[in-house]
Design goal:
- It is a single chain.
- It is elongated and about 105 Å long.
- Strand 3 (126-129) and strand 4 form a beta hairpin.
- Helix 5 (80-92) packs across helix 6 (107-117) and helix 5 (80-92) runs parallel beside helix 8.
- The chain is of the alpha+beta class.
- The protein folds into 3 domains: 2-64, no CATH class; 80-158, Endonuclease I-creI; 170-270, Endonuclease I-creI (Roll).
- 27% of the residues are buried.
- Helix content is 51%, strand content 14%.
- The strands form 2 sheets. The chain has a 4-stranded antiparallel beta sheet with strand order 1-2-4-3. Strands 5-6-8-7 form a 4-stranded antiparallel beta sheet.
- The chain has 11 helices and 8 strands.
- It has helices spanning 2-13, 18-25, 29-36, 43-64, 80-92, 107-117, 143-159, 165-179, 198-209, 228-237, 261-270; strands at residues 93-95, 99-104, 126-129, 136-141, 180-184, 189-194, 216-218, 222-226.
- The termini are far apart.
């Protein structure tokens, strides 16, 4: 027993780990541990163990990446539905390494994203409703799907200026449905669209010019459309989608009801003398 104890101590002093000593001696782990529990490994050895563990975790993660029994259909050709889908994830959503998430208070927009997503992905999303804000969230957790959506979102944003006019229209409509609002009162008639990323605002401004709609970028981080002619052109060419409403329950709401944004736009244009 003393020889075994001495062997354990010597091996430990040579910076062998518990599993290594068990393998060398052929003795049970509990027996080995009893004799080496008070002898720490060197800092260098501990660092080597941590590095090896980290490398193993990364390798396992990379091996799992993209592997899912829930397959989807990649798309290469852009059409109106795919532009709408990817745009919604860009503007009022989130694309991360684990999946794609879309948030909105409008049930019609949530339904739109769900319906189009079924063209490339057969599985239902995870649903959540924030009861305090009324915001709905749908989440699609699939690593490979998320990677594809991320790739297509970068492609869309980089190339939308070169797209046919009917696809540019869908990109703009998704932006104003997600990020836009309609201000109409005694002092103001304007369509506004907010985005923290100013490069998005610059793109929106350029695309609006393709429809002969003038706009300006104003602080804090919003594109603004004013003037009867510009509002009329916006209504004709882009407009807000049916079912997209203001939040009439907000304390500062002047309407006190959930009016459709397109209805408020109609009233604003009609108010010009």
């Amino acid at each position: 027993m003393n020889n075994f104890k001495q062997q354990c101590v010597v091996l430990r002093s040579q910076d062998h780990t518990l599993p290594e000593i068990v393998k060398i001696t052929g003795r049970p782990k509990t027996s080995v541990y009893f004799h080496i529990r008070d002898i720490p490994l060197s800092t260098q050895k501990l660092r080597m163990i941590q590095d090896a563990s980290r490398t193993r975790i990364i390798r396992m993660s990379e091996n799992r990446k993209g592997k899912s029994s829930r397959s989807f259909k990649e798309f290469s050709t852009w059409n109106t539905n795919m532009v709408l889908l990817i745009s919604h994830f860009l503007f009022d959503g989130e694309i991360n390494t684990h999946g794609c998430i879309y948030n909105n208070r409008s049930t019609s927009l949530i339904k739109r994203v769900e319906t189009i997503m079924k063209e490339i992905y057969d599985f239902e999303p995870t649903r959540y409703c924030n009861k305090s804000t009324g915001v709905l969230r749908i989440s699609y957790f699939n690593v490979a799907l998320a990677a594809h959506i991320k790739k297509k979102s970068q492609e869309l944003f980089s190339n939308v200026n070169t797209f046919p006019k009917h696809l540019k229209r869908e990109f703009l409509r998704a932006f104003f449905d997600d990020e836009g609002c309609m201000n109409f009162n005694n002092r103001s008639r304007r369509v506004r669209g907010y985005q923290k990323d100013t490069s998005v605002l610059e793109t929106i401004k350029i695309l609006l010019l393709d429809f002969d709609i003038g706009s300006s970028i104003q602080k804090p981080n919003e594109v603004v459309i004013v003037g009867k002619e510009n509002l009329q052109k916006f209504q004709k060419e882009i407009n807000f989608s049916p079912g997209v409403c203001i939040n009439g329950n907000r304390s500062n709401s002047i309407w006190k009801q959930n009016l459709e944004k397109r209805e408020i736009l109609e009233r604003a244009i009609a108010s010009y003398q």
